[in-house]
Amino acid sequence: MAIDGQGFGGVERRGLMFVLSSPSGAGKTTLSRLLMERMPDMRMSVSVTTRKKRPGEVEGRDYHFVDKARFFAMEKNGELLEWATVFDNLYGTPRKPVEEALATGHDVLFDIDWQGTQQLRQRARSDVVSVFLLPPSAEALEKRLHSRAQDADDVIRGRMSRASHEMSHWAEYDYVVVNSDLDAAYSKIESILQVERLRRERQMWLSQFVRNLQRQLEK
Ligand code: 5GP
After folding, report:
1. Whose CA is nearest to atom 1 of ligand 1?
2. Which of 4, 152, 166, 185 is deepest in the core (most CB within 10 A)?
3. pLDDT tens, residue by residue, 9-59
4. Is 5 a member of any domain?
5. Would 211 be classed as within a structural domain?
6. Contact predicate 75/83, CB 8 Å
C-alpha cells in the first residue's frame, strides 16, 4: 500500500521541538551547527535578543537583534513562544516560524536555556524533546570560554559562575549528554533524535496504515 499521508494534510510525521541546553562553553553552538548541516529537514529557531551582536554574528542567522521596546512589544502581542532574562539580556523564541515548521512536518532545534525549556514543556509537553549538554570538566568549560575570546574577562567570570547554577537544572531534561568528544556527543544526539522520531504518536500515518492493513486482511 502506498503511504500517501491522506487525512493529515500530507504530513506523515509530527515535527518535534528539539531543545539543546547547556552552560555556555559546553559545545552547544558547534553541535547545533552540525545538526543543522547534517539534518536537512531540521529548522533552527532563531531567537530575538536584546544582547549586543558579537563579532562574526549575523542578524537573522544567529539572532534577531532587537531593542527592549521591540522585545516587549513582541511579548505583549503574543509573538513569543517563551522568553527569559539571561545574563541581564532578554531572549525569546518567535512563535510563528516554529508553528509553521511543525505544521509542515519539520523538526525545530532550539538553543535556549532551562527557563525557556520549562515554558515550552508547559505549553507543548508531548512535542518537546530536551537534551542537556554537560562539559567533561570545569577546566574544559573555562578553556572553551577563553578560546572563544569574544567576551570580556568579567563577562567570562560571570558565565563561569552562572554555569554551576544552570547545571542544577540537568534533571529537568529528558536526556543528558557529556560532551567529552564532539563526534561521540554528536552521534548520541543524532540517536536521540532518530529514536524520538519513531515514537508512535509522532508517526501520524500509522493509524491509516494499520486500518488499511486490517481492511485487506479481513477481505
Ligand atoms: P548567548 O548570549 O551566549 O548567545 O546565549 C546565552 C544563553 O541564552 C544561552 O544559554 C542560550 O541557550 C540562551 N538563549 C538563547 N536564545 C534563547 C531564547 O530564545 N530563549 C531562552 N529562554 N534562552 C535563550
Report:
1. 24
2. 185
3. 556 788 999 999 999 889 999 999 999 999 999 999 999 999 999 999 999
4. no
5. yes
6. yes
